[in-house]
């Protein structure tokens, strides 16, 4: 298994990080995908929380999962457009 993120958005996020952090993020995500690696991350609550948060972010890319998690990008965009119209902004 590689340390590369499975989702395109998460891959972009990792690629945008500075080099030392990028390598660490890739290693952490690779660990998260293995049972023994998850156990190691569990030993440090901060690393475990970071890995879980990153993986949760990647789930929001799939519209079906995003809606189930309470995030509907289309509804948010429509609400923003409606508010701009109400305020008279283009």
Structure description:
By secondary structure, the protein is mainly alpha-helical. The chain folds into 2 domains: 1-59, no CATH class; 62-90, no CATH class. 73% of the residues lie in helices and 0% in strands. The protein contains 6 helices and no strands. Helix 2 crosses helix 3 (35-42) and helix 2 (19-32) crosses helix 4. The longest helix is centred in the middle third of the chain and has 15 residues, at 45-59. It starts with 7 loop residues before the first helix and ends with a helix. 8% of the residues are buried. The model has no long low-confidence stretch (mean pLDDT 84).
List the helices and strands and how they pair.
Layout: H1 8-15, H2 19-32, H3 35-42, H4 45-59, H5 63-68, H6 73-87
Total individual domains = 2
| Main sheet: strands, sense, barrel | none
Distance between the termini: 48 Å
Tell me what portion of residues adopts beta-strand conformation.
under 5%
Radius of gyration: 17 Å
Instruction: Choose one word for the global shape.
Output: elongated
> What structural category characterises the helix and strand content?
mainly alpha
Low-confidence stretches: none
Helix/strand order: HHHHHH
Portion of residues within helices: over 70%
Overall mean pLDDT stands at 84
How many helical elements?
Answer: 6
Based on DSSP secondary structure assignment, what is the total number of beta strands?
0
What characteristics describe this protein?
6 helices, 2 domains, elongated, 90 residues, mainly alpha
């Amino acid at each position: 298994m590689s340390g590369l993120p499975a989702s395109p958005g998460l891959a972009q996020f990792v690629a945008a990080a500075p080099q030392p952090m990028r390598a660490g993020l890739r290693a952490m995500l690779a660990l998260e995908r293995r049972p023994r690696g998850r156990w190691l991350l569990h030993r440090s609550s901060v690393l475990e929380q970071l890995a879980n948060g990153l993986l949760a972010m990647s789930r929001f890319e799939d519209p079906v999962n995003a809606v189930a998690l309470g995030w509907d990008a289309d509804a948010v965009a429509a609400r923003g457009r409606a508010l701009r119209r109400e305020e008279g902004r283009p």
